[in-house]
TrEMBL record:
GO terms for biological process: maturation of SSU-rRNA. The lineage of its organism: Bacteria, Pseudomonadati, Bacteroidota, Chitinophagia, Chitinophagales. GO terms for molecular function: ribosomal small subunit binding. One of several proteins that assist in the late maturation steps of the functional core of the 30S ribosomal subunit. Associates with free 30S ribosomal subunits (but not with 30S subunits that are part of 70S ribosomes or polysomes). Required for efficient processing of 16S rRNA. May interact with the 5'-terminal helix region of 16S rRNA. This is Ribosome-binding factor A. Belongs to the RbfA family. The keyword Cytoplasm applies. PANTHER family: RIBOSOME-BINDING FACTOR A, CHLOROPLASTIC-RELATED (PTHR33515).
Length: 124
């Protein structure tokens, strides 16, 4: 189902504000890795936001998600202060891992391996 214009607007607003909150709280660069918010999807009733986190060079991604969830009350309070005038209710936030980056790296490795195998066959 396609998102409405309002859903997209709220998703973009939340993505921008959450990115700034993460940066202020120090979540964007941790332990030599990076965390970014790749997307925010809003339900049609505007009461739930699905936040997709992209993690680069983070050893234990599930542990990192749990650390963010522990501070969710603080994050939601800050978000309410920032967007309270634009929204009647702050949506419930659900965190999801966005593994697109990992998928891209795996696909690049496979293509490189196929190319190397073909080059090896041509040299024989």
């Amino acid at each position: 189902m396609q998102e409405s214009k309002r859903q997209k607007q709220i998703g973009q607003l939340l993505q921008k504000e959450l990115s700034e909150i993460f940066q202020r709280m120090g979540f964007n660069v941790l332990e030599g890795g990076m965390i970014s918010i790749s997307a925010v999807r809003i339900t049609p009733d505007l009461l739930e936001a699905r936040v997709y986190l992209s993690m680069f060079q983070i050893a234990d991604t599930h542990e990192m998600v749990n650390r963010i969830k522990e501070r969710m009350g603080e994050i939601k309070k800050e978000l309410g202060n920032r967007v309270g005038k634009q929204l009647r209710r702050i949506p419930e936030i659900s965190l999801f891992l966005d593994d697109t980056l990992e998928y891209v790296f795996k696909m690049e490795e496979l293509f490189k391996k196929i190319k190397d195998d073909e080059a090896g066959k041509e040299n024989k």
